[in-house]
Amino acid sequence: MTKVTTHQAEEDARNDQILIYVDGRIVPKAQAMVSVYDSGFMLGDGVWEGLRLYDGNWAFADEHLDRLFEAAKAIDLDIGKTRDQVMTALLDTQKANNMTTDAHARLMVTRGVKHRPFQHPGLSRSGPTFVIIMEHSKPKIPRPITLATVPHMRGLPMTQDPKLNSHSKLNCILACIAAEKAGADEALMLDVHGFVNTTNACNFFIVKKGQVWTSTGDYCMNGITRQKVIDLCRANDIPVFERNFSLVDTYSADEAFLTGTFGAQTPVGRIDGRTIGTGELGPMTERLRGLYKKLVANA
């Protein structure tokens, strides 16, 4: 079976020539570099945010910037810019790259360059480091995603709270590796109680008898697209529940799909070797895709 990922995109030769924002300068890709002493490179000490460009509009930009600044405050990191300055940097990078639609931006902020190669945040004396990578990016997922349940958990509030978009993603990478070893595309991760939680990269939903279920949100990234789907269900009289549910519930689902800024709503065909529904894009997922497209167009 051909390898598929939730962030798979069409090849675009223009990405060889993109310009990248690095600490106030917009430079060619080959010149976009940070120090080996940068705290993000050394320790994953930083936060990030992903945004998507649709027809000249950065979808739900206010909510994405809210989350970026909240995450920075949570780790006691001064971004060094106001919200308006961050938005200006995003728009300047978009203009420099002549992008109008089907683009994805990754905003990354680290604690900056360290004085010595050790953990203490006080050693980061030159910072923060602020980078924007913007690529031409049109999702191209040729078939529904397959998932495998793995033993790795996304994180706990008292260790590494999964509600942070932290640069430290090793637990998710290990989960993805475990899923690939099991012959799946990506990982389905359980919470500390054994209930279905999230995947290594996206939020997870199932559809059962006309109802849409997702996890409580206590142990996963509370994605912006996740919330938009919940809101759309409520606005369109689709029963939706944030609740605990198990793998037994999941295997018997009529549909399953993932949500994220990049892929919006991505269908899931198989989990742990079991076909979910027909194994193809289901009618509820298709309906929610249509509702979401209208929401983005009117945002």
| DSSP summary: helix tally | 7
Helix content: 25-40%
- Count of discrete domains: 2
What proportion of the residues form beta strands (DSSP E)? 25-35%
**Oligomeric state of shown chains:** single chain
Mean of residue pLDDT values: 96
Annotation, overall tally of beta strands? 17
Order of helices and strands: EEHEEHHEEEEEHEEEEHEHEEEH
Element layout with pairings:
Layout: E1 19-22, E2 25-28, H1 39-43, E3 46-54, E4 57-58, H2 61-74, H3 83-96, E5 103-110, E6 113-114, E7 124-126, E8 129-136, E9 145-150, H4 170-181, E10 186-190, E11 196-199, E12 203-208, E13 211-214, H5 224-235, E14 240-242, H6 247-251, E15 255-260, E16 264-271, E17 274-275, H7 283-298
Parallel strand pairs: 9-10, 9-16, 13-14
Antiparallel strand pairs: 1-2, 1-8, 3-4, 3-5, 5-8, 6-7, 10-11, 12-13, 12-15, 15-16, 16-17
Protein model, in words:
- The protein is an alpha+beta fold.
- The chain has 2 domains: 13-136, 2-Layer Sandwich (D-amino Acid Aminotransferase, Chain A, domain 1); 145-298, Alpha-Beta Barrel (D-amino Acid Aminotransferase, Chain A, domain 2).
- 26% of the residues lie in helices and 28% in strands.
- The protein contains 7 helices and 17 strands.
- Strands 9, 10, 11, 12, 13, 14, 15, 16 and 17 form a 9-stranded mixed beta sheet that branches.
Brief description of this entry?
By secondary structure, this protein is of the alpha+beta class. It has seven helices and 17 strands.
